[in-house]
Amino acid sequence: MAEEDDTPPEGFSFPEFLSSIGKWPPFVALIAFLSSACNTFNDAIGSSIGQYRNTAIEMLDRFRISIFSTIYSVILRAPALVIVCLLLMTYPFFLQSMEFQHQINGDVEVYLPDGANSTDLLLEVREQWSTDIVLLYVHTDNAIDDANRRGTENVTDQDILRQISWIEGDDENQGAGGLKRGLDYAKDDRGTEDGVVWILSHSQIIKEANSSAKRFNCALEKYQIPNVDPEGCPVTSTTPSDGYSIPSDQDTIDRYVENAAPIMRNFVRDTQDPDPTVDEDGDGITDNEGDGIWDTAVVVIGIRFDMNGTEIDGRVDPKDPNSGNRIYDHRAFMEHTENLLEKCGFEPEMDLCRTSYSDALSSMNVSRQGILPRDAITVTGLTPVLHDVSDAVYDELVDRMLPLSIAFVALAMIILHRSPKVVVICGMPIVLSLMVTFGSTVFLDIMLTPMIISAGPILVGLGVDYALHLVNRIEENRNEMLDEHAQRMFEAEREGKSLDPIDPWDEGLYHQATVNAACTTGNAIMLSALTTIIGFNVLTWTSLVPIKPMRTVGTTLLLGIAITFFLSMVMVPALSYVLRYRKGRSAANDSVWSFIGTIPVRAPGAILVVTLLFSAYGAMILSDELGKDITGSSDEVPPGLQSYEALAEYSRVFNGGQTNMFIVDAEDRGRVNDTAPIRDLPILDAIDRIQTQDIDTVDNTTSISLVTILKSIPVTVQDPITETVIFDDTLWGLIHSDCWDNPTSGLECPFLLLTNRETMVNVVFDTLSPEVRSMLMNADSGFGETKTLVYVNQPYINLGDAGELRKTIDQRLTGSGCEEGSALNCNAVGMDGVENTLLTGSLPVSLDINAGIHEAQSETTIATMLVLLVVMSFLFMSPRLALFTMTAVGVVVLWQPLLMRGGSVNVNVFTAMIGTIVFGIGVDDSIHIVDRIKDEGETPGGISKSVEKTGQTIFETTATTSAGLAAGLFVSIPGLQNFFVLMMLLIIFALLTSSLLLPSMIVTYRSILHRLSGNEGSWAGFEVDVVIEEKVDGVEASLVDG
Question: Quick one: which of 301, 376, 381, 976 has its CA closest to 644?
Answer without folding.
Answer: 381
